[in-house]
Amino acid sequence: MALDPVDLEAGCDEALRLLQGRATRRSLAVELSDAAWTSPTAGEAKGFSSFGGRICAYALALFIVTSFAGVCLEWLTRGQLYRTLVALLLIAECLTSATYTVVVPLSYDLATHFGQGSAFSGLMVSAPFAVYLLGALRARCVMISWNQMKVCRYALVAYGIYALSTALSAAAVHPPTFLSLSATLRVGLLLALRMSYGLVDSVGDVVQMMVVKVCPQAELGEIIVSIFAANALGFGVGPLLSGAIGEMVATSDVELRAGIPLIVLACLWAVLVMAFYHAIPHELGTAHMVSGKEDIQESVEDVDAAVSESCDLATSRQVIFWTGLAYAFLCAVLTSSLEAGTALVLERHFHLTAQSIGLLLGSAFCAAAPLTVMLSWALPAERPWPAWAAVPPLIATVLLFKGPYALLGLTELRLYAVLAADVVLFSIALCANGAVDAAALQHMAGGTKLYCRENYIIAAATLRAAGSFAGPPAIRILASYGEETGAVMQLAVVVLAFACAAAIKYLGAWLHDTEADLLAAQCRLKDKVVSQRE
């Protein structure tokens, strides 16, 4: 039977229309399935393409974020100044990390879209830390010559710059139609705006110093660990927000998928600025200030100052000061390289889309936040860590290498093992950072001396910024020579960081016991002097 050409043409048109309609309705699961079938590593990633897996990942991340918001809201409603400041600081730290990492899933796509390479994608992630030192010097001046009114003004302006720069970054990524901007100009604007974050990033350190002034010393360690946990949560919220919005928008326009999350973050920053405006006190009265350990020592009369500060104590404090700064740098290099390196592996090796990368990284690093807090409960606060504490980070680092999976024939499990290793390393590194900072702040005095709390906070934050700036480009440049090269760098960083943290915990425990004995001896001496006078 001969086919009518007219009917054949109509049938082809109808088939083409149906195919086009089907293409427009494709979901993320279908895209992932296609990527898996066309990829040489399909078997390693096809498990994540299920709808149920995505729902579970989103539900886990949403539960953690909601719990975090509930804790902050509960602290805000207590009416205690230090808890209000801590709650706002936790939200600000979470938003800061989210603002920095929201571009991670799309960094490589944006770089290629603008005609750049993988090195530029790493630079775009780490750009906020390029000029951090300039902002840190300004923050140190604010902290040393403390004036509560100036501190309030500084905090509001700094957080306002976050809101403005984030909104302008969205305009640079996806400019309005009436603006005709070249790709080179947009790249320059985006880098400049992201670098502007570094000029005001130290505002978190200034607010943290305000918290140190008003919070009970017994809760200082827990509060600092909570700050790092909020930072970890932000590391997950950024990619998660980018991936979720990219999936909801369902468009291949990389500019639109990158611009919408920035607009959402800009709105959240604006709300936070208003909350800080109503919450920060313009004066810190004596009722707000909490006396530290050094005030108790100063109240002991008729005691030679040399008795209370021996050469061994002073040397131990100096060692804690410098070792804590070294750990701050190593921790930042590790945590920033984990997210940037894993994102590159997921894109190059597993051929996942930006939405999938954002979902995986977001849910993984969100899970690191509560794990960080739970680790702080499990590890001893005033005692040295046991030797077995080094085993989990070393095992997790080995999972970053490609060789063990090929040797054991477990290449299909590599995707989940790498994410689990990231969560473990991230949580342990931040928990140890909180313990290190708490030990340093508890054994440092306030004032203008070299080894004082203000200098430690600023120096540690500056070195964290330097490490965060160096981590993403370093891991991506090393990855160009092979994935194993980047894993070797991360293994070396883990070993050095654990050695620094263990040394600080040992010295901190010795200082704690020695200072307690000295204080008891001083009290006995004071009682003896008073009894002799009577």
From TrEMBL:
GO molecular function ontology, one term from the record: transmembrane transporter activity
Keyword annotations: Membrane, Transmembrane, Transmembrane helix
Protein name as annotated: Uncharacterized protein
InterPro entries: MFS, MFS_trans_sf
Gene source species: Symbiodinium pilosum (Dinoflagellate)
Keyword Phosphoprotein: no
Domain of life per record: Eukaryota
Bilayer-crossing regions: 51-73, 85-108, 120-139, 151-173, 223-246, 258-280, 319-346, 358-379, 385-401, 413-436, 456-475, 487-508
The keyword Membrane is annotated on this UniProt entry: yes
